[in-house]
């Protein structure tokens, strides 16, 4: 087991409906040392890809994006789920479906922060069916930006998001891939060897 799998096994909780709660360390209360290891791992994987932006969708991916971007010495940009009065100018917009909330969001990103000059690393805390990543890829396509890689903390390998992204040619790195989870039996991680 790697460092993230060990932490999920010790502190994660499996709930009904294929919900994996990691809120004590990853997406509510944040273990900054763990996030730093995640960021460093993504940096080691993608350091030679010419990345000049790290992109995520609010809110849970922001901490991972920040810890990753510090190693690349590049800015973090995030697509916003909520309309706010401080969003001005031209915007990229895409629809993202949240598995956790079972809701569609229009995510937006100001055009001034992403262009055809950018090589982007997309990051997020979870990958299930891939809707958030598809929305971020759509935004990158609208901008003419290059998706240089996709870094995911936890992939639900029993759902098809990761396999579809890899099948489409994207370089996806998931630090922990959960192949099965059950409230009684717990978790089964994929051996990434």
Which secondary structure elements does this structure contain, and how are they paired or packed?
Layout: H1 3-11, E1 13-15, E2 19-21, H2 32-46, E3 53-57, H3 61-72, E4 76-79, E5 91-98, E6 103-110, E7 119-127, H4 131-143, E8 146-156, H5 161-167, E9 172-182, E10 186-189
Helix pairs in contact: 2-3
What is the beta-strand fraction?
25-35%
Distance between the termini: 10 Å
SSE string: HEEHEHEEEEHEHEE
CATH class label: Alpha Beta
CATH-defined fold name: Rossmann fold
Number of helices: 5
SS content category:
alpha/beta
Q: Give me the Rg, rounded.
A: 16 Å
Summarize model confidence as the mean pLDDT: 92
User: Do you know the CATH architecture?
Assistant: 3-Layer(aba) Sandwich
Q: What's the story with the biggest beta sheet?
A: 6 strands, mixed
Features:
193 residues, six-stranded mixed sheet, transferase, alpha/beta, Rossmann fold, single chain, 5 helices, Xanthine_PRibTrfase
Fold and architecture overview:
By secondary structure, the chain is α/β, with parallel strands linked by helices. It contains 5 helices and 10 strands. The chain has helices spanning 3-11, 32-46, 61-72, 131-143, 161-167; strands at residues 13-15, 19-21, 53-57, 76-79, 91-98, 103-110, 119-127, 146-156, 172-182, 186-189. A 6-stranded mixed sheet has the order 4-3-7-8-9-10, with helices on both faces. The longest helix has 15 residues, at 32-46. The radius of gyration is 16 Å and the shape is globular. Pfam families: Pribosyltran.
């Amino acid at each position: 087991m790697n460092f993230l799998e060990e932490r999920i096994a010790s502190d994660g909780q499996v709930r009904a409906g294929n919900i994996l709660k990691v809120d004590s360390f990853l997406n509510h209360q944040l273990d900054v040392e763990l996030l730093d290891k995640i960021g460093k791992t993504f940096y080691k994987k993608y350091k030679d890809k010419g990345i000049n932006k790290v992109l995520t969708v609010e809110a849970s991916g922001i901490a991972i994006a920040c810890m990753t971007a510090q190693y690349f010495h590049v800015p973090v940009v995030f697509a916003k789920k909520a309309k706010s009065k401080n969003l001005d100018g031209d915007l990229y917009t895409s629809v993202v479906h949240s598995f956790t909330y079972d809701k569609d969001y229009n995510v937006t990103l100001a055009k001034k922060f992403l262009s055809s000059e950018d090589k982007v690393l997309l990051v997020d805390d979870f990958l299930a069916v891939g809707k958030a990543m598809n929305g971020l890829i759509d935004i990158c396509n609208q901008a003419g930006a290059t998706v240089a890689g996709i870094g995911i903390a936890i992939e639900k390998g029993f759902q098809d998001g990761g396999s579809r992204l890899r099948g489409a040619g994207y370089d996806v790195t998931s630090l922990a891939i959960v192949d099965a989870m059950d409230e009684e039996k717990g978790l089964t991680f994929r051996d990434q060897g």
